[in-house]
Design a protein that fits this description.
This protein is α+β, with helices and mostly antiparallel strands and 522 residues long. It has one domain. It contains twelve helices and 22 strands. A five-stranded antiparallel β-sheet has the order 11-12-13-14-16, with helices on one face. The protein has a four-stranded antiparallel β-sheet with strand order 3-20-21-22. The longest helix has 33 residues. It is globular, with a radius of gyration of 23 Å. The relative contact order is 0.14.
Length: 522
């Protein structure tokens, strides 16, 4: 690739308009309990795209004295606050259980009070399989699983049953479902226009393995004789043959039959390749391989902060680093001149800036889909620990905006409330009281000269992360010794509020500092 010198002013990032590729949105990393340093189970999710960033704790409810029904909705992903019904449609009813569990209500609902957590990644698949008139979108299936289940296996069975009875209306989706002991990857797709039902497979990640889902189906062989590690619907091969996705000859592979066009006939692209190579360099994976394994045993055990680090990845220092050809010169005190990465080079260039640079000198930027992206709405890493009470054993490390730039706030299974700023979405209009904008402003300003702001910015991310972890042991002991659920909830609510308050305050100071720094121009 041609390397060029770019005048700094020409590479000012156009941060006002993010490049959003909805076909390559969302990343989920899963880690089994024997692959982690402390025995916890991990799943995660980067919700990439313009989705709502408000979130709430929905309480457990008792319906034992009434004949209640559960109302199913579509259009809940882009509302501005909890009671907003703009664009929301009621599409049906199903019988309600006598008791439902409390859960963290995000755009894709993600954690309940019993340490059941769900990540997500869309893979799309053939349009011919989508039945938009069916009842369930994936986010509503996640919601019901969290309201009604305590284990990943039960969640998979429930989702399979609901889809068979009421129909699946979404495109191809992967949900990564974890509990205190196991983590599973479930891939689901429709079974045809006007057809009620769905096609799905679910595979357990071995306890000593790591798996990843990045908008491409990953499950291959059907292992119906191995129920401890595999489940699927009865119609997987039948639907594939009906719609010409498999000719019935040779071994059936789910990812190959139901694949998406941007996978280019494989079960991986940049993100899967980078994450697996980072965690298991001894495997010597190469990008020209036909496929990657469903999961890998990492060379070293992984902790929750390693997963956070991976979700920040932009391939720095590799051949996939998009900043490596955006160069400038630096004059030294002795009069010599060095060629360096331009101070304004950043790994989240908009499409307009990529086109500008490639027009000046073709081949300057070769787009690679990084793990962290500027168009992320929110992201989390869920850590589930069976040796602690559920209230504090399950923790969702949440961040808003770009996961490569934002600090993480812990939300626990036992939280009963969230900071006020979490209840407002900032996607449709500027709102300084919404937590999205409390972090987005400094992040976008830092991006303008990322090579010069990155050190300070990331030092603050890691400092706040370290401080949040340092207080956990004391909090866990207090919750374990608490005899009253309300007191434990207060401890957890206060911890979340304190970590958020410290982070929001520091990001306000960073923003002020960046304005002072760039006050005379960018």
């Amino acid at each position: 690739m041609k390397r060029i010198l770019i005048i700094l002013a020409l590479v000012l990032p156009m941060v006002a308009a993010a490049q959003v590729n909805t076909k390559e949105s969302c990343t989920s990393i899963m880690v089994g309990k024997k692959a982690t340093t402390d025995g916890s189970v991990i799943t995660s999710h980067t919700c990439d795209g313009r989705y709502r960033t408000w979130m709430s704790i929905e309480p457990a409810r008792d319906y034992s004295k009434s004949k209640a029904v559960h109302t199913v909705y579509k259009g809940t992903m882009h509302t501005s606050f909890r009671g907003d019904t703009t664009g929301v449609r009621q599409v049906g009813f199903i019988p309600q259980l006598k008791q439902t569990y409390a859960y963290l209500n995000t755009a894709y609902p993600c954690l309940n009070e019993h340490q059941l957590a769900i990540g997500e990644s869309t893979f799309g698949g053939p349009d011919t399989l989508v039945n938009p008139t069916a009842m369930f979108l994936i986010e509503e299936l996640e919601r019901l699983a969290l309201m009604r289940c305590t284990t990943a296996r039960d969640a998979i069975r429930l989702i399979g049953d609901l889809v068979a009875r009421y129909g699946y209306a979404d495109g191809g989706e992967c949900i990564t479902i974890a509990d205190r002991n196991e983590v599973w990857q479930m891939e689901i797709i429709g079974c045809g226009k006007d057809q009620v039902g769905g096609v799905w497979v679910a595979q357990r990640v071995p306890d000593d393995h790591v798996a990843v889902s990045c908008n491409i189906p990953r499950i291959g062989r059907l292992q119906r004789n191995n129920p401890a590690y595999f489940m699927c619907s009865d119609n997987v091969e039948e639907v594939a043959r009906k719609y010409g996705l498999w000719d019935g000859e040779g071994e059936f592979l789910f990812w190959k039959a139901y694949n998406t066009s941007w996978a280019n006939g494989r079960n991986f692209r940049e993100r899967e390749f980078f994450i697996f190579n980072t965690l298991a360099p001894s495997k010597h994976f190469t990008y020209d391989m036909d496929e990657l394994p469903f999961s890998i045993k990492p060379d070293e055990k992984v902790d929750v902060r390693k997963v956070m680090e991976l979700l920040r990845s932009t391939y720095e220092g590799t051949d996939m680093d998009m900043t490596r050809n955006i160069l400038s010169t630096r004059k030294n005190k002795d009069g010599s001149v060095d060629t360096i990465i331009s101070p304004v080079a950043n790994p989240w260039l908009t499409g307009a800036m990529q086109q500008t640079l490639n027009t000046i000198a073709p081949g300057t930027v070769d787009f690679k889909r990084t793990v962290s992206v500027a168009w992320c709405s929110y992201s989390f890493v869920a850590q589930l620990r069976d040796w602690l009470p559920d209230a504090v054993g399950g923790v969702c490390w949440m961040a808003v905006d770009n996961p490569g730039q934002s600090p993480r706030i812990p939300i626990f299974c036992g939280n009963t409330e969230l900071p006020e700023a979490f209840g407002m979405c900032g996607q449709k209009s500027y709102n300084p009281d919404a937590w999205l904008w409390q972090f987005r402003k400094a992040n976008k300003l830092a991006t303008i000269q990322w090579q010069s702001t990155r050190k300070q910015h990331m030092n603050e991310v890691l400092r706040l992360e370290r401080e949040a972890f340092e207080g956990l042991e004391n909090l866990e002991n207090k919750v374990k010794n608490s005899k009253k659920k309300q007191y434990a909830a207060k401890l957890l609510n206060n911890y979340t509020q304190r970590v958020y308050g410290n982070a929001a305050g520091q990001w306000r100071r960073l923003e002020e500092g960046y304005w002072q720094r760039f006050g005379m121009g960018f």
